[in-house]
Structure formats: C-alpha cells, structure tokens
Amino acid sequence: MANNGIDNIQMAEKTLRGQRIGLVTNQTGVAKDFTPDAQVLAGLGRVVRILTPDAALVKTDTAPVVRLAGPTLAPAALAGLDVLVYDMAATGVRYDTSLALELAGMRAAAEADVPFVVLDRVLPLGRLDPEGTPLPEALAAAPGTAGLPALYSLTPGELARWANPAIECDLRVVPVTGWDATGTVLENELPWIAPAPGLASLTSVALYPGVALLTAANVSVGWGTAQPFQLVGAPWLNGEKLVAMLSQTLAGQSGQVHYRPTRFTPLAGQNQGQVCEGIQIHLQHLWQPQLLNVGLDVLFALHALHKGELVVDAKRLAALTGVVDLFSQDLTTLKAANKKAGAQFAEKTQAARLYQ
C-alpha cells in the first residue's frame, strides 16, 4: 500500500514536534484521506504560515495564507519559523514551476538556517525514463535548474537530494513508502489532484514534456480547453496535412500515438477566442518511452508544413529544449542524443534516488 510523505508524517516527529512551522504547499497538498497537509501538521507543531503560489486554491483555518509572487521565496518570508516544510506534487518535468519554487525554498531555508523538510510524493505517471539534453547554465532561467533534462523524472525528495550539494540546506526527506513506480498515482491508490489548470488529466501530464515545447510558438496547445497539451492548433494550420505527416513518424507508425484532425476555440493562451484548426493527440498508453519526441515531431512537422506562418521565440525554445538553433539539427540525431543524455542523467542521479 503506497503512502506519500504526508501520510508518513510520524517519521518527522522529532523535527516537527512543538515547532513553529512554515508550509509551502498548494491544492495538491493532501493526505491519503484528503485531509489538508496543514491540518495534519497541526497535530505535531504550530503551523504559523502557509506559503503558496495560488492562495485562492488553498482553503484553511489553520494559519494565515501568503500568496507567493511567482516561483520565488525570500528568506524574509521565513522570519519567526523554526522549520520550513515543502509538500507539493510534481511532474518530474523541468519547466514545471513547482521545481523552481522547491529550489527557492531550499535556498531560503539555508540562508535562514532552518531545516527544510520535504514531504515526498509519487510521480503521477510513475518512474519514466529521463529524456532530453541537460540544460546549459547559460540557458537556465531559474537558479539551480542547469543540468536537468526536460524530463528528469525525480520525485520532489530526490530532486532536493540531487540539488542540495550546491545549496547546503539542512535537508530532511519524509519518504514515500510502498510505491509501485511502474504505475500511475491512481494505480497506487493515491489522490490525484491537478497541480495546474494545464495539467488537468494524466493524459495532459504525459504529453506535457513534449507538447510544452510548442508554447514557444504562435500555436495553441489547448490552454483554455478541456484537453490542454492534447490539442495543437492555429487559425492558419492545416490539420489534415499535419496528421498525414505525423502518421509517418516512428511514433505514429508504432500505434502508440494517434493523431486526428480537429477544430477548437481556446479560451486562454495563444489564439485565445479564435477558431483553430489543428490536431488532437491520443496516447495508447500513458506509460511509454520517449514522450519528449511527440512534441518534437509536431514542432518539426509544423516547421516543414507552415514555415511561413510559424513564428517561434528562439530564446524560449532554447530554454525549453536546452538546444540552441533547434531547427538546424537533424531530428533523428536529436532524438538519439536526447535518449542518450537521459540515460546518462539517470546513471548520474542514482545516489539521489530513494526508490527504484
């Protein structure tokens, strides 16, 4: 039977008992029975401050809720605390904003000289193979993210262990127990709460590493629809031609990924309020290798079909992929390099991993 860190809170009793606790959390911070983490922690210490990226989604009478302005955390926010606890679900994807917030919390705790306790959580799709080129320092927008591939596939506790040699906070991880890392969060009978509006389903989470690359272009990725990251479209896009091209890719021919033409009107993001012609991406299985390639296939196909209409923010695309001048690369070679780099990252992070 799987438990997240919050369900194993007794393991941190010596650290938390009678202490003034600051809690970094969001709507995903619940125990197995959906009790809010702040309420669970109140049974050990005094929760004096809840720090969250979206105060509207965290409802509690336990302590004052402070909304964070982006994925940052100043040491001053820890004034009067004895310990800082972090409890947020993560996707294991480098551009997930919870990653930058966790690292900021570690740095703030180190500067304030208080313990940083991670209540670890399972990865929503299980332990996928890492994929992607490690992000060069020059392209890293958030401190501490250099060296991570697009899909790094570490839990929040493992990520903290990987990052801490450079940060040197007093790190303590309350581990996950009983996790079958070959199954999804639901197959492990744990709560699934969408960590962001764009990650409303496990299918969207699966497509996120690859399709998020298209947020650097003037196409909709389905934000403001019921299928974020499952839809790609624009008013100028030819969905049928795009499907025909994608059906010839290795993923399309394998039967693991299916594409169909569609039309939709996004209510947020690129092309908001406009009728978009495009595609919907269907996965045969959530657990499958090389999810990053799905987005690369779509991006390169769009570049070939609609070079005149497609507008790409080159700086943002480089920050997402870790590759400068992406379209000058041979796609087959790029995919092979991403796979090799992911395997090397998995080997290098063995010491940080808590679960196999």
Count of distinct strands: 9
Main sheet strand line-up: 3-2-1-4-5-6
Strand and helix order: HEHEEEHEHEHEHHEEHHH
Q: What is the approximate shape?
A: elongated
Residues in helix, %:
25-40%
Rg, rounded, reads: 21 Å
Straight-line distance between termini:
16 Å
Q: Proportion of β residues?
A: 5-15%
The chain-level structural class is: alpha/beta
Nearest-integer average pLDDT:
94
User: Can you summarize the main beta sheet?
Assistant: 6 strands, parallel
Question: How many DSSP H or I helices?
Answer: 10
Contiguous runs where pLDDT drops below 50 for at least 5 residues: none
Description:
By secondary structure, this protein is of the alpha/beta class. The chain contains ten helices and nine strands. The chain has helices spanning 13-16, 37-41, 97-112, 156-167, 202-211, 239-246, 250-254, 291-305, 314-321, 331-348; strands at 20-25, 46-52, 65-67, 83-87, 116-119, 171-174, 231-234, 257-264, 276-283. Strands 3-2-1-4-5-6 form a six-stranded parallel sheet. Helix 4 links the parallel strand 5 and strand 6 (171-174). The longest helix is centred in the last third of the chain and has 18 residues, at 331-348. 47% of the residues are buried. The model has no long low-confidence stretch (mean pLDDT 94).
Task: Write out key terms for the chains shown.
10 helices; about 350 residues; alpha/beta; elongated; single chain; NamZ; about 30% helix; DUF1343 domain-containing protein; 3-stranded antiparallel β-sheet; 6-stranded parallel β-sheet; NamZ_C
